[in-house]
Design brief:
Number of domains: 1
Strand content: 25-35%
Structural class: alpha+beta
Number of strands: 10
Oligomer: single chain
Order of helices and strands: EEHEHHEEEEHHEEE
Length: 230
C-alpha cells in the first residue's frame, strides 16, 4: 500500500485485494520497453476478440488449474483482453511481456519509459473475454511534478476511455483529467462510477523517491464503500 493508493494483488482465494504486490507502478522503473511512440488517438478503440491472435493465448495446463478456482470478482462487462493490450501497443507502443498465471488469474504487464517517466499497465483476466481489473500508472523518479502532471493527464485520460458495455469515454476522460488538473493534495484517492464499473484514481502519491499517478478500473468497489464513488 502506498500512502493510501493501493493496487492489485492476487491471492489464492481468487479475490483481488489492494496490496501493491506485483503492480504496474512498483515494477515500472526496472524492466520493460523503452522507446518513443507518438500518441495521436484520444479514445481507445474496440478490438473484437480474435482467436487467431497470440494475445490471450494461454497454457492448457494453466487453464486446467484455473477451473479449480471459484471467482467472486465480477468481470468488466463487454471487455476482452485484446482490446486492452492492442490499444496500449498500437497507440502508446507498450508491448506486454508473456502472460503470467497465479491463483487462477492471468496477467499481462507492460510499460515504456520516456524522458524519465514510465507509463505502464497491468490487466488481470480469467479468460480472454473475462477481464476483471485493469490498472494504469505513471511513475517517475526524475521528472518534475509539472512534467509528471502533464503526462498523467494525457496517459490516464486516455486510459479512462477503456471501452466496455455501459462506458462513457468522454465522461470518464473528463473526470480523470479534471481530478488530475485540480488536485489539492487533501485526498489520496478519489472514485467515480460509470455504468457498472468503478474508477479509482490516485492523483499524485509519493512512495520513497517515486511520484506515482494511478488509475484502477474494476467491476467491483475493490473494498471501498459504495459512497466513495461519485
Amino acid at each position: 500500500m502506498r500512502n493510501g493508493l493501493s493496487v492489485m494483488g492476487v491471492f489464492a482465494i481468487a479475490t483481488l485485494s489492494l496490496s501493491g504486490c506485483g503492480t504496474t507502478a512498483s515494477q515500472a522503473m526496472t524492466n520493460g520497453h523503452t522507446g518513443t511512440q507518438e500518441n495521436t488517438d484520444s479514445t481507445m478503440k474496440v478490438y473484437p476478440y480474435n482467436r487467431s491472435l497470440s494475445v490471450g493465448k494461454t497454457n492448457p495446463k494453466d487453464d486446467v488449474k484455473a477451473k479449480q478456482f471459484i471467482f467472486t470478482q465480477p468481470d468488466i462487462p463487454g471487455l476482452n483482453v485484446q482490446t486492452v493490450v492492442l490499444n496500449m501497443q498500437n497507440t502508446w507502443g507498450i508491448k506486454p511481456g508473456n502472460a503470467s498465471f497465479q491463483a487462477g488469474w492471468y496477467t499481462y504487464k507492460g510499460y515504456r519509459v520516456e524522458n524519465g517517466i514510465s507509463d505502464g499497465y497491468t490487466v488481470n483476466w480469467r479468460s480472454p473475454q473475462k477481464v476483471t481489473v485493469v490498472d494504469f500508472s505513471v511513475v517517475t523518479t526524475k521528472a518534475t511534478p509539472s512534467e509528471q502532471k502533464a503526462e498523467a493527464i494525457k496517459y490516464l485520460g486516455y486510459a479512462a476511455t477503456l471501452p466496455y458495455t455501459g462506458a462513457n469515454p468522454a465522461n470518464a476522460k473528463q473526470w480523470v483529467q479534471n481530478e488530475l488538473q485540480t488536485y489539492d493534495g487533501k485526498q489520496t484517492t478519489v472514485g467515480h462510477k460509470i455504468g457498472n464499473v468503478y474508477f479509482t484514481l490516485g492523483p499524485y502519491v509519493k512512495s520513497g523517491n517515486q511520484l506515482i499517478s494511478e488509475l484502477t478500473i474494476s467491476a467491483s468497489t475493490m473494498g471501498k464503500p459504495s459512497n466513495f464513488f461519485k
